[in-house]
Amino acid sequence: MIAKIIYGETCQGTLNYVLGKEGMRILGYGNTFSQKVSPKFFGDVLHFQGQRNATKNRYAHISLNLPHGEHLNDKTFLKISKEYMEKMGFGEQPYVVVRHTDTTHEHVHIVTTIVKEDGKVLPIYNSHKRSMATRRYLEKKYGLSQAPTTKRNRQLPIYRLPEEQFGMDAEKGTKFYLQDVLNSINQKYKVRSFDELARLVKPYHIELRQTKNEMGRIGVAFGLNNQKGYRTRFLSGSAVHRNLSGPKLQKVFDAHSKSKLLPMHRKRLLKQIETTYGLFKTIRPHDLKDVLKGYQGIDIELETKGDVIEGYTIYDKSKYVFGKRGLGKHIRMQNRLEIFGNGNEPTQIDIESKQFKLEVQKAIKEALTTSYLKSLKQDGLLSEHIITRNFGDIVPNLKASEKFRFLERYIPRNQRIEFRKAVENAFPIIKKRIYELETKKEKEILEKKFKLIGKVLEKGIFNVGTEQGSIRLLFQALGVKYHDNQLSFTQSNKHTIPVKLGNLPFPENMEKHVSTGFVRQNHLMLEMLTEQSSENSPKMTGSAIFLPMIFPKLYERMDPVYKWQYERVALGSYVKYAEQMHAPFEKSAKDYITLFNAKGFYFVKGEKGFEVKSIYTNNKASYPLPKRTSLYLNSIPDLSVRLQRQRTVIKGLFEEGRNDLKNLWVGHLMERGVYDKVAFILTSEKAYPNLHREIVQHHMDNGLRQSLVQVSQRQSSVQQKRLLRKGVYAVSSLLGGRGKNQDEAFNGFKDELTDWSKYKRKGVGMG
């Protein structure tokens, strides 16, 4: 199901279209004193209520569209519509639900106002994101086909062109078809002129005509012509939609044309195209589209006149569209006959070109790196791995590489054996070069870590020293070790830096497992605390909040002032990550709070807005939410009651002993879809996720239940259980010790994942 929301300043035109369509059926009204009111009376009620506030977006036009071939009866469609309105916060507003039958897919239109009876306005923050979550919830509840939740490159629905018909109703259908396509085009592309807009809408049978009145005012009109006998009169842009008038479109075009980023995008594209030309000996004109897409990821459309290709239009990832005049004459096919002027000669890569040799080097480097990352034991550094590899070791990775397959595709068949031999012959030279580069890079990284350690000790971020050997905790958390007055990487002795600290004792109970990903996060965090990071430095991710779980002995020794700084930044990083994970389930501002509460985060309202805190950090540590998010939460009608309810949820987590980072960690892994690891923790570690039941249920249905069955079956053997602990998931060593009673076999699904009663007691339900 697809849900669309359009906000507008007036409702009369929308009501005329929705209620005037031939074959329409009024399924029902919302919040009217009777279901037998006339459409005219409802229109008057809606108009007068909307006029109680001067906001521009005072009316809402919503459409709920089913996929082709899917059917709902009127009663069910009305029920879904009412539930959609309730979840979106329109449940107490007057609205009408109207079913149309003019297209091949079933759909309803809902018209309402965001102005309440007292003249105040309903909050519409994040309404499109919340609409996606509501739509997903209803799809699951009513067994409807799920619409895609991610953006996909696809053409607009040309099939929606109105059927051949005449009269006023045809004009209404034309207006809304024009509105749908033109608004979608302007969202998808950064259009810079009326001529460009005309080219973009031509495939949808839309014609554009520019006008100018006696005062010199620019105007525009749109009409339909499918070249098959169906043609409409032209409608002015302002009649189609208020934002499609000539002056407003020209203002948008000027802003796009004057953007400072436009020359940068043009320069990048020119370089990408020249690089492509430099790789190929010949390119058959009709192959250029596949070549640019496969090599550079550039989308183009060939411009043809009969069988002759005159040029191409580029649809750039920046949303700009570049025609044959937009990038200069030098890259045009007519001016590059040495590449395009060979008639029907097949597209071939120039194996003697400098660019080809560079691409081979990239493919070999990618294969070497992939073989290192996929190796079972990453005992040494990348450079050490590279120097021990033979060509045969990387052949499987080469064959799996898209880069290598692209190159091989455009090598003539009679030269492919020579091509593979050339790659094999180039391997030793490239291997040596990459080895030298990686060696140099590793030395620089080790020196950088050494300097960072000095800064950390100088500022006293951690209470560590040499007397009890606790400084080794800092070394370990940065992926280095100390031995014989030398500092080196944890997994290698290849590079060393002299550090005379004497014979350091080894601290008891040091963490044995160190994840390279968390070492990287810890490094970034310490750079931030020592103010060595810059705006261009990599930013910490949501996983930074788990550092005290990964390196508990070190973080127990953290200075309170620096710990407050760390927790503040870690909270902010996690909130941004969690907001993305919550999007498919967040139907309202109430859900925003509920989903965070289930994870152990709660919100406090202050004079400057909202702050978020957590049960995993000090109570003084907080992160201020952006102004827009604070406004979003302020839109909750019973906000004080909702904030008060947080206490019950948080208290429940404490009472159940779920105020540990490992509970958040299990939920984190679940959200990332790492179900085999989650299943191992649930069955062996008995650490349950701090996650809302709706999200848990989603993951159970998505594959977690199957993983739980598989792991529980494997755990019937003690020997297999031990292998699981050692080989399947190393995080067990990070999560602390286990008692003997935790080794009991997993008992089916009788666990907290399916026992919703305790969650309902705690009041974490949504909706």
UniProtKB/TrEMBL annotation:
Classification via InterPro entries = Endonuclease_MobA/VirD2
Q: Which domain of life is it from?
A: Bacteria
* Stretches assigned to the MobA/VirD2-like nuclease domain: 45-144
One matching Pfam family is Relaxase
State the name under which the record lists this protein. Answer: Relaxase/mobilization nuclease domain-containing protein
